[in-house]
Amino acid sequence: MDNFVALKDVHFSHGQRTIYDGLSLTVPKGKIVAVMGPSGIGKTTLLRLIGGQLRPSSGSIKVADEEVTQLSRKALYELRKRMSMLFQSGALFTDMSVFDNVAFPLREHTELTEEVIRSIVLMKLEAVGLRGARDLMPAELSGGMARRAALARAIALDPDLIMYDEPFAGQDPISMGVIVKLIRSLNESLGLTSIVVSHDVGEVLSIADYAYIIADKKVVAEGTPAELENNDKAIVRQFLQGEADGPVKFHYTEDDFAMDLMGEAHG
Amino acid sequence: MDSLARLGATVTDAVAGIGRALAMLLGAIIGKPTPRKSWPLFVQQMYVVGVLSLIIIVVSGLFIGMVLGLQGYTILVDYGAEQSLGPMVALSLLRELGPVVTALLFAGRAGSALTAEIGLMKATEQLSSLEMMAVDPLRRVVAPRFWAGFVSMPLLALIFSAVGIYGGYLVGSGWLGVDEGAFWSVMQSAVDWRDDLMNGIIKSLVFAFVVTWIALYKGYRCEPTSAGISKATTSTVVTASLAILGLDFILTALMFGG
Predict the structure, then answer these.
(1) Dist. CA B150–CA A233, nearest whole Å
(2) Which residues of A touch B37 (CB under 8 A)?
(3) Model's pTM, two decimal places?
(4) I want to staple B164 with a disulfide (CB 3.0 to 4.6 A). Which of A81, B12, B13, B61 is the partner?
(5) Residue B128 and residue A78: Cβ atoms within 8 Å?
(6) What is the pairing mode between strands A17-28 and A3-14?
(7) A58-103 tens-digit pLDDT
(8) Measured between beta carbons, which residues in chain A are less than 8 angstroms from residue B131?
(9) Under an 8 A CB cutoff, do A91 and B126 touch?
C-alpha cells in the first residue's frame, strides 16, 4: 500500500453550492502532504470527507485501502481509531484538565490501567512540551498551548494518519515555529502520515513532502515544494506570492461597481 | 398559492424536525449498555442537572405552598371549612403545581443550560472531535444528560410538593391557626396514593422526557454560532414551556376528566 489516502473524482455539494467538482488527490504513506488554497475553498470539508464525517455525492475516498464512503458506522468508527484530526480551535474538552483530555481516547478505547495511562499521557505531553501544564484547564492555556495539548491528544492512540486543520492560524511566530517542528518530528519519529491543510504557504511548504493547491473546486496544481515554486501557472503564482487579484478574484460579487452605486445592478 | 406552499414547507419542516429529534434520541439511548463508562457520566449529570436545581425548586416550592395556604385559608374560612386546608394544599401540589411548576423551572434552569452547553460543544468542534476520536457523541454526551433529566425531574417534583405542603402547613397551622391534627389527618384521608400521587409522578415523567428531549435536540441541532446558541436556548425554554402546559391539559383530561 503506497498511498494511505486516495481521493478519486470526488464531487461534493453543500446545499446549492458545489464545493468539489471532480477532486482527486493521493497521500503517500509516511509523508507529509500539504493541501493549500484560498479561504472558503472547502479545505476543512476535505478533511471531514476523509474522516467520513461528510459523504460525497459521488467519487471514491480510500483510507488504508478501505472505501470510506461505503463503510458501515461501526467499521467507520474502527477506522477512525487509526486516524486523528487536529482541529483549528484545538477542540479540547473544556470540562477536563489537559491531562484528562490527553487520557480521554486511551480511557475510551483501551483497557489500560490508570498507571499505564498516566505514563503514556506524560510521554505525549513531554513530546509537545506541556508536561508541566498537565493540571491546567483548557481555558488557562494560550492558543498555541491549546493546540499543542490537542496535538498530544491526537497522538495518544498512536494513529497512522493525522490531519491538521490550519495548525498555524492565529499563532505567534514562536508557537508557529514550535508547531512546524513538532509536525515534522512527530511524522518522522512515529512513522505517521500527515495531511496539513493550511494557507500559511511558507510554513507548510517548509515541512511538506508534497503539496496540492485547490481552487475552483478541484486540484489546480500539485508537486513537491520545489516544483510548485517553479510552476508558472497564474493561479499558483498568485497564491504563492499572495497577490490580491488574479485568477482568484478578490471581490465576491461581480456586479459593475458604478452600476451598483447607482442602485441598478441588483435591480 | 405562495402561502399554501409556505404552509406545506412549514409542515414538512416540522415533520422532518420531529424525525431528526427522534433519530437523535434513539441513537442516544439504544445500544449495548456500557455501565462501567456510562454510570459515572450519569452520576455527574445528575449532580449538574438535578442537585444544582435543588435550591430553586425548594425555595419556589416553599413560597408556592405558603401562598396556597394563605389563599386557601381565606377562601375556606368563609365556609367554615378551614380544616380542609391540608387536602387543598396537598392535592393542588401533587396533582398540578408540583409536576407543572417543577417542569417549567427545570426547563428554565437545567433545560437552557443543557442546550447552551451542547450548542457550545458543537460550536467549539468538541462534538466533531469526539466523532473523529471514534466516540459517539450521542452516547457520550446526549445519553447521560437525557437519563439524568428523566430521572431527576420527578424526584425534584416530589421534593417541590413535599416542601410546598410544609409551606402550606407553616402558614395554615403556624400562622393562621388551623388545627394541626385536622390539617394532617384530613389530608391523609383525602389524598389517594394512585389517583393523586401516582398520576402526579406520571405527569412528571412525561414532562421530564419531553423537556430534556427538547433541550438536548435544540442544542444538538443549533447553528454553531453565538446567535445560533442564543436562539436555541430561548427556543428550548419557549417550546418546552408550551409543551408542558399543552401536555398537562391532555394528561389532566385523561386522568381526571371522567
Answers:
(1) 61
(2) 108
(3) 0.86
(4) B61
(5) no
(6) antiparallel
(7) 999 999 988 999 988 889 998 998 899 998 888 899 889 999 999 9
(8) 51, 53, 80
(9) yes
